[in-house]
Amino acid sequence: MNSLTPFPERAPDAVMFQRAELNEILSLYGRMVAAGEWRDYGISALRDAAVFSIFRRAAEQPLYRIEKRPKLRARQGQYQVIGMDGQILKRGHELRTVLRVLERKLIRAVE
After folding, report:
1. pTM (2 decimals)?
2. Could you give the count of Cα atoms lying within 13 Å of 90 in the half-sphere of its Cβ?
3. In the chain, how many domains are there?
4. Range of the domain at 60
Protein backbone atom coordinates (compact mmCIF):
# COMPACT_ATOMS: atom_id res chain seq x y z
CA MET A 1 0.00 0.00 0.00
CA ASN A 2 1.35 3.37 -1.00
CA SER A 3 1.25 5.85 1.88
CA LEU A 4 0.01 8.62 -0.44
CA THR A 5 -3.18 6.82 -1.49
CA PRO A 6 -6.00 5.93 0.92
CA PHE A 7 -6.89 2.74 -0.95
CA PRO A 8 -4.77 -0.37 -1.27
CA GLU A 9 -3.58 -1.04 -4.78
CA ARG A 10 -5.15 -4.03 -6.49
CA ALA A 11 -3.04 -6.94 -7.57
CA PRO A 12 -1.84 -6.48 -11.16
CA ASP A 13 -3.29 -9.82 -12.22
CA ALA A 14 -6.74 -9.28 -10.67
CA VAL A 15 -9.80 -9.43 -12.93
CA MET A 16 -11.92 -6.27 -12.96
CA PHE A 17 -15.19 -5.21 -14.56
CA GLN A 18 -14.76 -2.63 -17.31
CA ARG A 19 -16.69 0.65 -17.13
CA ALA A 20 -19.29 -0.45 -19.72
CA GLU A 21 -19.87 -3.71 -17.83
CA LEU A 22 -20.34 -1.85 -14.54
CA ASN A 23 -22.77 0.55 -16.24
CA GLU A 24 -24.90 -2.43 -17.37
CA ILE A 25 -24.85 -4.01 -13.92
CA LEU A 26 -25.50 -0.77 -12.03
CA SER A 27 -28.37 0.13 -14.35
CA LEU A 28 -30.14 -3.12 -13.45
CA TYR A 29 -29.15 -2.70 -9.79
CA GLY A 30 -30.70 0.78 -9.68
CA ARG A 31 -33.99 -0.46 -11.11
CA MET A 32 -34.13 -3.30 -8.57
CA VAL A 33 -33.38 -0.92 -5.69
CA ALA A 34 -36.19 1.36 -6.90
CA ALA A 35 -38.51 -1.68 -6.92
CA GLY A 36 -37.49 -2.42 -3.31
CA GLU A 37 -35.94 -5.81 -4.14
CA TRP A 38 -32.25 -5.13 -3.49
CA ARG A 39 -30.53 -2.90 -0.96
CA ASP A 40 -26.77 -3.41 -1.03
CA TYR A 41 -23.92 -4.68 -3.18
CA GLY A 42 -20.26 -5.55 -3.03
CA ILE A 43 -17.55 -5.81 -5.68
CA SER A 44 -14.56 -8.13 -5.49
CA ALA A 45 -11.55 -8.30 -7.81
CA LEU A 46 -9.98 -11.72 -7.52
CA ARG A 47 -7.16 -13.37 -9.41
CA ASP A 48 -9.45 -15.40 -11.68
CA ALA A 49 -12.78 -13.53 -11.42
CA ALA A 50 -14.51 -10.22 -10.84
CA VAL A 51 -17.61 -10.61 -8.66
CA PHE A 52 -20.56 -8.25 -8.16
CA SER A 53 -22.56 -9.52 -5.16
CA ILE A 54 -26.16 -8.40 -4.60
CA PHE A 55 -27.76 -8.34 -1.15
CA ARG A 56 -31.27 -7.81 0.20
CA ARG A 57 -29.69 -6.75 3.52
CA ALA A 58 -26.03 -6.06 4.18
CA ALA A 59 -25.73 -8.69 6.93
CA GLU A 60 -26.94 -11.56 4.74
CA GLN A 61 -25.20 -13.71 2.20
CA PRO A 62 -25.66 -12.49 -1.38
CA LEU A 63 -28.92 -13.17 -3.22
CA TYR A 64 -27.04 -13.24 -6.53
CA ARG A 65 -23.49 -13.02 -7.76
CA ILE A 66 -22.61 -11.72 -11.20
CA GLU A 67 -19.20 -13.11 -12.13
CA LYS A 68 -16.77 -12.38 -14.92
CA ARG A 69 -14.31 -15.22 -15.52
CA PRO A 70 -12.15 -14.47 -18.58
CA LYS A 71 -10.66 -17.99 -18.61
CA LEU A 72 -14.13 -19.33 -19.57
CA ARG A 73 -14.46 -16.92 -22.52
CA ALA A 74 -13.75 -19.61 -25.14
CA ARG A 75 -16.01 -22.19 -23.51
CA GLN A 76 -19.44 -21.38 -22.10
CA GLY A 77 -18.83 -17.63 -21.80
CA GLN A 78 -17.08 -15.42 -19.29
CA TYR A 79 -20.22 -14.06 -17.59
CA GLN A 80 -22.48 -15.93 -15.21
CA VAL A 81 -25.23 -15.22 -12.68
CA ILE A 82 -25.19 -17.44 -9.61
CA GLY A 83 -28.07 -17.76 -7.14
CA MET A 84 -27.92 -17.83 -3.35
CA ASP A 85 -27.70 -21.63 -3.34
CA GLY A 86 -24.69 -21.66 -5.69
CA GLN A 87 -26.69 -22.72 -8.74
CA ILE A 88 -25.66 -21.09 -12.01
CA LEU A 89 -28.81 -19.39 -13.30
CA LYS A 90 -27.38 -18.17 -16.61
CA ARG A 91 -24.02 -18.01 -18.34
CA GLY A 92 -22.94 -16.62 -21.65
CA HIS A 93 -20.62 -14.52 -23.77
CA GLU A 94 -22.57 -11.24 -23.52
CA LEU A 95 -23.26 -9.56 -20.19
CA ARG A 96 -26.57 -8.03 -21.28
CA THR A 97 -27.94 -11.44 -22.27
CA VAL A 98 -26.85 -13.00 -18.98
CA LEU A 99 -28.43 -10.20 -16.93
CA ARG A 100 -31.84 -10.84 -18.51
CA VAL A 101 -32.37 -13.67 -16.03
CA LEU A 102 -32.46 -11.02 -13.29
CA GLU A 103 -34.52 -8.53 -15.32
CA ARG A 104 -37.32 -11.11 -15.47
CA LYS A 105 -37.45 -10.92 -11.69
CA LEU A 106 -37.91 -7.13 -11.98
CA ILE A 107 -40.89 -7.59 -14.28
CA ARG A 108 -42.49 -9.95 -11.75
CA ALA A 109 -41.77 -7.54 -8.89
CA VAL A 110 -43.55 -4.67 -10.64
CA GLU A 111 -46.65 -6.69 -11.57
Report:
1. 0.81
2. 16
3. 1
4. 19-110
